[in-house]
Predict the 3D structure of the following.
Amino acid sequence: MTMLRILALWIGTAFRANPRLTLLMCVTTVLGAALGPISVYGVKLIIDGATGADTLMSGVAVTVITLLVSTAANQIAGPLGDTLDDQVVRYVYDDLLRLTAGIPSLAHHENPELADRVSLIERDAHQLGGIWRMLMTIGVVSGVTTVIVMLSSVDPLLNLLLLLAMLPAAVSALLLHRRNSLWRENERFRRLANGVTDLLAEPKHGVEVRCFGLVAPLVEVVRGAMDARRIPWVGMTRRYGVLEGLAWVVFGAGYAVAIVGVLGWAQAGQATAGDVILVVLIGPQIATTAQGMAANLAIVIGAAQTFGRYQWLRDYATEHAWSGSLGAPPERLTRGIRFEDVSFSYPGTTRTVLDRVDLTLPAGRTVAFVGDNGAGKSTLVKLLARLYDPSEGRVTIDGTPLTELDPAAWRDRISAGFQDFATFEFLASDSVGVGDLKRRDDRVILDDAVRSGEAGPVVESLPDGLETMLGRRFTDGVGLSGGQWQRLALARAFMRPEPLLMLLDEPTAALDPEAEAAIYDRYGQAARDLARRTGAVTILVSHRFSTVRMADLIVVVSDGRITEFGSHADLLAAGGHYARLFELQARAYR
Ligand SMILES: Nc1ncnc2c1ncn2[C@@H]1O[C@H](COP(=O)(O)OP(=O)(O)OP(=O)(O)O)[C@@H](O)[C@H]1O
């Protein structure tokens, strides 16, 4: 069943990429492979005709026509196949991007099994174009059938030759199977080598890599990972190479025996001269057919495995598409957002990161999350954006479970600024504008967002203002400092007009104090304005208590639990963890 699905996906992919070309390939490959051996039969008819039988003219006709047609078919099969390959590979690359980027959760980015499979598909994507190889294998099968018919016309015993010629094909198929298992087991080494190579090439890490003298040890890690993958593969290829050589020797011996045998039959009057010539000529044909079979089988098995992974990824994407979540978010929040008995462990881990969290974030309020490193603040933020689903319990929006809302529609109503902001190396206008794709070309809104994100001075310093290309990796664009990038990220967060939720997860860590104060002023205004218009909840994650105190409510997170909850004044009066931390920071500033 699985094999059939893979086959259907393979052919379906080629047909989706280019239906007419795929059909043409089907016809030409089958034709090309079947006609070669028939031409040998024509030669037999000619020889028999020359030695008395009435087959001379038909032999000439069969030989000439089959040779012409098969040569023409083989000639066009190559270029057509290459074109089809190219189109299928491009189609699959697009589909891979669509599938992986289309999964609404973040969980798959942290799934090593998925990462290995995607990485293998990307590496082997060229094989996915091998549809014509598969067709050629079908062609080879029709060629084999023709050979069987002709050998049987002399003596069915001669079909043993074909069996002997299959030995090397079997050895190479076995090698392929073993090699594939080895690659799958060792894919993590390739990803490790690529990851470390990227790290070495990434300008962001360049300073530390050089200061700490990490170039040589990291290069050593890359070499070690490549060797861990390469050495077993070389040994295996060598062993199977010897076996395949031996298999060809066995075939050669069988061929010699067959010629001697047919000669004996001819001398005894049991075979014609044409039969002898047929066996002599068909030997190389059989070898070519078997070699073709081995080569094609190798590619077909490889492609079938890659298509198997592709099928797995498509199934995974379908299962994780949250296609049942279709609800629309409310126009405005009236009650607020609730965590109801929420527990959470990151996918693939067992550690409980959030432990039975019960928390109400009232509509129209600004709520600050504070707590030690690793307490679970950012995890709460990720659950609010539904980047993951809770392991237990639920998050509700005005009473509706978040899992019932269309994730794209919900995220459309979120504005966000993060500590780990993205540095989009686009035109400056796009780097900000992607904060709301629908309005990214609206200059008035862009200018407003730039002003609100305190990014005005950054844009003014750019040679072509918002029309300046950013980033130096791919173009002659302008390089920015960490703080300048962050200001653009903040501007991006001001693009959406009517969010229901504003997520600010340490969004000012790279800013100078003046810009930070100004930005929080803006956020304060935006939060009050949004509270009035949409009842939006603003979430603020920060370690700076001067910022935190401006929130209406403060949530202290400790080891995945909520330990304190209330206004700044309430929590100070309670004299708990918050009060101690606040006092500690305040003292440092005095
Ligand atoms: N992607 C992940 N996979 C597995 N565990 C994770 C992942 N992200 C975070 N964690 C773990 O979850 C716990 C909570 O992390 P979280 O990022 O929510 O903490 P935080 O309170 O925001 O910390 P910080 O103040 O340092 O930003 C940590 O122990 C962390 O190791």
User: Anything to note?
Assistant: Residues 110, 346, 349, 353, 371, 373-379 surround adenosine-5'-triphosphate (CB under 6 Å). The chain has three domains: 2-319, 323-413+500-562, 423-497. The longest strand covers residues 336-344. The first helix runs from residue 2 to 17.
